[in-house]
Design a protein that fits this description.
A hairpin with a 5-residue loop joins strand 7 and strand 8. This protein is mostly beta strands and about 210 residues long. It has a single domain, classed as Lipoprotein localisation LolA/LolB/LppX (outer membrane lipoprotein receptor (LolB), chain A), CATH 2.50.20.10. Helix content is about 15%, strand content about 45%.
Length: about 210
C-alpha cells in the first residue's frame, strides 16, 4: 500500500515537468534578458509555404529602442520591401519606390505581398519570448530554453540556438498556422547592450535603425 502515494507523487512530478510555462520578458533564457539589448540586429533567410505556393527571401532586421527596420528581398532582389515601424505604426516601401503606411504591420505586408507573414509576433518570437499583446504558452527544454511557443494562432518550434553575450539566441525556428508554414534561419546576430558592450556571431555591434 505504501507504493500508492509514491506512484501518485511520481505522476504529479511528471505532469509538472511537461506543463507549459506562461512567461514574460526573457525569463526562460539564461543570462541577460532581452531588455538588456535595446539595439539588436539579425540577418537570415525565410521560406514561407501557404497551400501549394511558396516564397523565399533574405531577411535583415534592425532595432534600436523600439524603432525597427525590416528588409525582405527575394532571389535577385525580387519583390523587395522595406518596413519601418514603431509604437505609432508602420511604413512600407516597395522596390519601385511606392510607400504605404498603416497601424498593423502584418496586414500591411499581406496587402502588398499577398503573404501572411507575422511581423508583429516574429519581433519577439525570434528572441525566444512571447509578444506582449496576447496570452501565450511556452514549453521549455531541459536547459530552460524555449522549445515551443503557442500564441495568436501560431505554433512556433525552436530547434537551434547560438550563445552570444551569455545568452542563448534562437537561430532556427518553424512557425505554423493553418496551412501556412514559415521556416526562419538566422545566420548572424548582432547585439549592443545598454552600456555599449557588444556580442555577435562573428560580427561587430549593431547599427541603430533610423
Amino acid at each position: 500500500m505504501r507504493l500508492l502515494p509514491v506512484l501518485i507523487l511520481a505522476l504529479y512530478l511528471a505532469g509538472c515537468a511537461t506543463a507549459p510555462v506562461d512567461t514574460g520578458k526573457g525569463a526562460l533564457l539564461p543570462g541577460p534578458g532581452i531588455d538588456d539589448y535595446p539595439v539588436w540586429q539579425f540577418r537570415g533567410r525565410v521560406s514561407l509555404i501557404q497551400g501549394e505556393q511558396g516564397w523565399h527571401a533574405s531577411l535583415n532586421w534592425r532595432e534600436a529602442s523600439g524603432l525597427y527596420r525590416l528588409n525582405l528581398a527575394g532571389p535577385m532582389g525580387q519583390a523587395a520591401v522595406q518596413l519601418d515601424g514603431d509604437a505609432s505604426g508602420v511604413r512600407l516601401r516597395t522596390a519601385n519606390g511606392e510607400e504605404l503606411a498603416a497601424g498593423d504591420a502584418d496586414a500591411l505586408v499581406e496587402s502588398v505581398t499577398g503573404w501572411q507573414f507575422p511581423v508583429t509576433g516574429i519581433r519577439y518570437w525570434v528572441r525566444g519570448v512571447p509578444a506582449p499583446v496576447a496570452e501565450a504558452q511556452v514549453f521549455t527544454d531541459a536547459s530552460g530554453r524555449p522549445a515551443r511557443l503557442l500564441q495568436s494562432g501560431w505554433d512556433i518550434r525552436y530547434s537551434r540556438f547560438q550563445q552570444v553575450e551569455g545568452r542563448d539566441w534562437p537561430t532556427r525556428m518553424r512557425l505554423v498556422a493553418g496551412d501556412i508554414s514559415v521556416r526562419l534561419v538566422i545566420d548572424e546576430w548582432r547585439l549592443s547592450a545598454g552600456g555599449g558592450a557588444t556580442g555577435a556571431t562573428g560580427a561587430a555591434s549593431a547599427s541603430p535603425a533610423p
